[in-house]
Fold:
Amino acid sequence: MQITGVSTSIPYSMEKKNSSSVGKSAVDQAVINFTPGSFSSFVKEAGQFPEVRSELVDSFKSRIQSGTYPSQEDIAGLTNVIGGHVLQLAQSE
Structure:
């Protein structure tokens, strides 16, 4: 893919509306603004991502479908990582 000639900021809005059980609707919104320089940088960085490892994707897909992912060990590990980051943030303030 090659993109050339980007010369303006392009706002892109993506909305997802969900209805909750009490009848209220929630809106998730993301707005992405690209300037010519940031868009070029984004395209360059996107081209550096490794290719998709299909065998790994298939492995996780089957674990999710069988109900064995996430395991208690996975949850505990994520909890430790997230908790560590929260503590670091709290200590830096």
